[in-house]
């Protein structure tokens, strides 16, 4: 797939700086769900997971977004409110997700689940982490971790019944849809 070039304005949702792809750029991507991409912001290289914004209605075409980290923003001399030049290319090489501390601790108590965790693909680990984090309360999150361990112990490599086309980050979404700035 060839490079996708566009300009977009960085914005804030809560304390996070968000880069949302224009609908026209997102439409070129091979999936409406999460994807790995390599690219540049203002000429500064990065690799990241882009997430779907969860919008599916006649009034809104779906798009993707990600949260550039502080180093990338600093190196690109960019902040919320700035227009940035972006180039993206989808990648088949999945970077490893950062495993949340509570999940890491739970996996360490279950050798069978932990063994399968290391055997599944990075993409499957992203699915599990997104499924676990996509809840509003700590109690529900803990329940998802317990269910994940049970499923991994039973040899299940992915969470079931999880729509990968929705926005699974509760800090910046409402009802599975990325909030507006």
UniProtKB/TrEMBL annotation:
Pfam families: DUF1905, OmdA. It comes from the Bacteria. This is DUF1905 domain-containing protein. It comes from Candidatus Daviesbacteria bacterium RIFCSPHIGHO2_02_FULL_43_12.
């Amino acid at each position: 797939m060839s490079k996708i070039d566009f300009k977009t304005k960085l914005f804030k949702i809560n304390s996070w700086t968000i880069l949302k792809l224009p609908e026209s750029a997102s439409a070129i991507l091979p999936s409406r769900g999460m994807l790995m991409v390599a690219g540049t912001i203002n000429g500064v290289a990065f690799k990241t997971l882009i997430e779907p914004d969860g919008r599916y209605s006649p009034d809104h075409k779906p798009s993707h977004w990600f949260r550039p980290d502080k180093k990338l923003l600093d190196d690109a001399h960019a902040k919320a409110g700035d227009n940035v030049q972006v180039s993206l290319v989808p990648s088949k090489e999945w970077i490893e997700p950062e495993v949340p501390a509570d999940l890491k601790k739970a996996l360490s108590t279950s050798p069978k689940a932990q063994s399968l965790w290391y055997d599944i693909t990075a993409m499957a680990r992203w699915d599990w982490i997104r499924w676990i984090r996509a809840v509003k309360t700590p109690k529900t999150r803990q329940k998802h971790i317990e269910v994940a361990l049970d499923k991994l112990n039973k040899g299940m490599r992915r969470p079931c019944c999880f729509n990968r086309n929705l926005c699974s980050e509760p800090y910046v979404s409402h009802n599975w849809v990325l909030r507006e700035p």
